[in-house]
Amino acid sequence: MTGTGTTLVVGATGTTGGRTAGQLIAEGHRVKAASRRATPLPGAEPVRFDWHDAATHGAALDGADRVYLVPPPGDSEPAAVMLPFLRRARAAGVRRAVLLSSSAVPEDGPAVGAVHRALPGLFEEWAVLRPSWFMQNFTGTHAHAVSVREDGVILTAAGSGRVGFVDADDIAAVAVRALTGDEAPCEDLILTGPETLDHDEIAAILTRAGGRPVVHRHLTREQLRDRLARLVPPDFAAMLADMDRAIALGAEDRTTDTVRRVTGRLPHGFREVLERELGAR
Fold first, then answer.
1. pLDDT tens-digit profile of 106-131?
2. What are phi and psi of 225, to 5 degrees?
3. Between β-strands 6-10 and 153-156, what pairing exists: parallel, antiparallel or unpaired?
């Protein structure tokens, strides 16, 4: 695929969508930046888009030949709205689709796993990005970052399980290559940072970087589920708590070379990301 097409970026105001749109624009690609409020983004065409409002889908797809897909947040069954949209996208002329999933959700898994399973049957050119947990969970608007800033605490049911935390900038860099490369990956890509860390180590790094104590408080799976259920639907809260439990059992204790293989450079480390985003020294 050449770089002369137009990419619809769903979730263009989000953590990976915003970075993907920005990197595409910086490389000279045409971008339609989709968000619920059609938020302006310099260099892109803003379009209103709501997964749950099919009336917004046609205009968003108009003229696009590839799409970056961020599932509806907090939805434990996203396929119900995503698959009709993807069929419409194919009919409208979209040839390549890149889906954001999770390292914790395989093709036969729940939630966005159903979309993963369907994607190769809908598009000849595709990729599924399966990043590990984001480093930005501790620097942005995620609940972990908020609790770090407000209370100096990280609350998880992950125990001492290790995670190959990944920089959202690196996820976006892989997304751009998957969207614009001459050949689509046509595979799922597990994305990690250069090392694995447990949450006690994350807390210690944040303590040194920020100059104030941060501790990791160990919760049970049930305690985390009940806490999350105050913020998101109960079934989604249970799924997130199960993901933490999987971390505790070692499911995310791995690193991959995918970022280097796809982008040609090494992934960023957590301390480097803190320096970039928080000005830590």
1. 999 999 999 999 999 999 999 999 99
2. -55, -50
3. unpaired
